Structure formats: C-alpha cells, structure tokens
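Students often ask why inverse folding is considered easier than folding. One informal answer: many sequences map to the same fold, so there is more than one right answer. In these notes we will look at a single instance of the problem. The structure comes first.
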C-alpha cells in the first residue's frame, strides 16, 4: 500500500498526541511566529468584516498571511527525519502519508507550521465560505500560540537545516487538496482532544476560569476541523467518485478506509465520551454556579453536533444516496442514513447537558 499523494512529504505527528509545546522556540522562529499570528488575526478580521467582504483587502490579507506562514515554516524547518523507518500505526496513516514518533519541540514546530502553511496556501484557490475560512484561520492562531508558550523556558536549539523555501504550493488536483487538508484536520483533532481533557482536569480541580478557557479553545478547534472537512471536500461529486473515492477502497488499499479508525479523530471522540460520561451536571445546574463554564461547555457540545451534521451535508453532496465504502454491498441504508443515526445517538447523549438539547429520541426496533 502506498500513499495517496507520494509527491507530498511524509508528516510526523507526536506519538503522545500533544500539539502544544513545552518550551519557547528559538528567537528567530518565535519572531516569525508572532508575525504569522498577527497576519492571521488580520485575515480573520477581514473575513468577518461586518461591512461585508471587500475583495481586494481580503485578497491582500490572505496573501500576507500565506507569505508570513510560509516564512515561518521555512525558519522553523529542521533536518527531515527518516520517516521511512517509522511504521504506520494504521492503514489511514499510510494512505495520508502520516507517521508518529517521539519528537522534540523543534520538530513539532517544524511539522505543524508546514501543515498550517500548506492548508492556508490552499485557501487561495479553495471555494470555502467566509465563515468556514475564518474558523480555520482562528484555529491556526490558537495552534501557533500553543507552539510558543509565554510562561515557558526558551528552546535555545537552532534549526538544524538552513532556512529556505519549503514546498508549500497547493497541488492542482483535488486529491492533493484532500490529503493536505486532512493533515490539518488531524492536528486540529489532537488539539481539540487535549483541550477537552485539560478542561475536565481543571474542572475536577475547581479552576473555573481555566476550565472555561479550555472549553472555549476546544470549541474553536471543533469548528475548525468541521471547516477543514468541508475544505477537503471542495470538489464535484463526479470528481470525488472518479479521483478520490477509488483511492480509499480495494484494490488501491487492502481494506476500505474509515474515519473511525483514524487515531487523531479517535482521540477526540474518546475525550468527548469521557466528558459526557463523567460531567453529568445539567446546563441549569452548572449555570447556577458557573454560567460562563456552562455556556462554554454548551458551545462545545453544539459544535460537535454541528460537525456531524456538516458531515451529513458533505456526504450528501459527494456520495448522494450511495452506501459508505465500509458498508457491505448488500447493506440496507445509505452512508447518509448511517451518519444520521450517529448524529441522533450523539444528540440523545448530549441532550441532558445542553441548554437547548435536541429532543429526538431513537426508538428500538424489533
């Protein structure tokens, strides 16, 4: 089995699933990071301009952010790891060109900034709504800030490769976009999982403000990985059917690939199951003591429901009433029906915790 896009470099994600650094990067890298964050914040403001989209300023803001992110990725680059010696932990990783390893902060910054820069560069040619672009950009700001914690010691190690251009240009085909945006999607899932876990830890410790902040972070990441999912699907249904879908099922791969076996998304889903199972206070009960925490948790749960609803929407656009590639050929129901059942199950689980919970109840059938 080979990667879907062998022309793209393998990416190495941290085996501990943490995309937050514990040390500050070298001074030139941190300076470039702060410049990139400022450019992304400017782009975010322009995307959500209350006076409406202004094509020329928006185009300029996007180009400024793309160039700043590219410069950051070049400065942060370290000597490439021999990723070919790393064993993919799931077939999905082989397909998307992903490996995992114990990596230091310098390599984490190198890998993550390159992933962000590629996804951002693709926004120049993607047909994504302003709100979805803004969701991705805001999450990029959060991820980058997490790579340069202000209360940490500086990592005085210099990048081991000379700064120079990194191949960040998006491809001219939809399969390349599919892979590039999934790399960003994986980073966002890991970031969301860590934020949810941290929120639960701070809640148990009685740290109200830290709990609220971690929940708000998590909601930003969830909205962003929903947008990244829509970004990856920026193609026509015939194109998806001809160029992308066949690469994820036999004979191209040993077995049909599914997001259910994607480790990064599984980490997020595990964190959300833990939240729903262990933090069972109703919205009203939580709001009586910590209204901002209650609203932040509600926003996270709402974002998670909207994510699977958007998954239904994009599946309807690309797959139609066909079955999922992981369903048996004679299976009853479509991919949309399967996702809708998953959505209702999730809504039923979240209902007691939400301000305006969904009152749809799944009925057992004989």
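Output (designed amino acids):
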């Amino acid at each position: 089995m080979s990667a879907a896009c062998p022309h793209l470099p393998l990416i190495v994600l941290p085996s501990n699933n943490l995309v937050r650094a514990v040390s500050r990067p070298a001074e030139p890298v941190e300076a470039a990071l702060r410049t990139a964050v400022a450019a992304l914040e400017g782009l975010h403001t322009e995307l959500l301009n209350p006076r409406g989209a202004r094509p020329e300023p928006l185009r300029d803001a996007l180009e400024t952010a793309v160039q700043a992110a590219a410069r950051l990725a070049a400065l942060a680059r370290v000597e490439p790891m021999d990723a070919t010696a790393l064993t993919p932990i799931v077939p999905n990783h082989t397909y998307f060109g992903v490996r995992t390893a114990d990596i230091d902060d310098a390599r984490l910054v190198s890998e993550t900034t390159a992933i962000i820069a590629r996804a951002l560069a693709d926004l120049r040619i993607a047909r994504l709504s302003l709100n979805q672009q803004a969701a991705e950009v805001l999450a990029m700001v959060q991820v980058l800030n997490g790579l340069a914690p202000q209360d940490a010691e500086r990592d005085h190690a210099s990048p081991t490769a000379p700064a120079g251009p990194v191949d960040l240009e998006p491809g001219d085909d939809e399969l390349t976009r599919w892979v590039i945006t999934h790399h960003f999607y994986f980073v966002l899932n890991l970031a969301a999982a860590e934020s949810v876990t941290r929120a639960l830890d701070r809640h148990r410790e009685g740290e109200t403000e830290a709990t609220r902040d971690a929940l708000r972070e998590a909601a930003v990441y969830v909205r962003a990985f929903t947008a990244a999912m829509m970004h990856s699907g920026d193609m026509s249904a015939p194109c998806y059917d001809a160029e992308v879908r066949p690469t994820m099922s036999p004979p191209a791969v040993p077995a049909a690939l599914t997001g259910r076996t994607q480790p990064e998304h599984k980490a997020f889903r595990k964190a959300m199951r833990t939240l729903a199972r262990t933090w069972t206070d109703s919205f009203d009960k939580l709001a009586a003591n910590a209204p901002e925490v209650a609203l932040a948790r509600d926003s996270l749960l709402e974002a998670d429901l909207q994510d699977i609803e958007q998954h239904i929407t994009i599946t309807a656009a690309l797959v139609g009433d066909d079955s999922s590639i992981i369903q048996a050929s004679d299976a009853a129901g479509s991919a949309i029906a399967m996702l809708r059942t998953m959505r209702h199950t999730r809504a039923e689980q979240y209902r007691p915790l939400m301000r305006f919970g969904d009152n749809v109840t799944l009925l057992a059938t004989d």
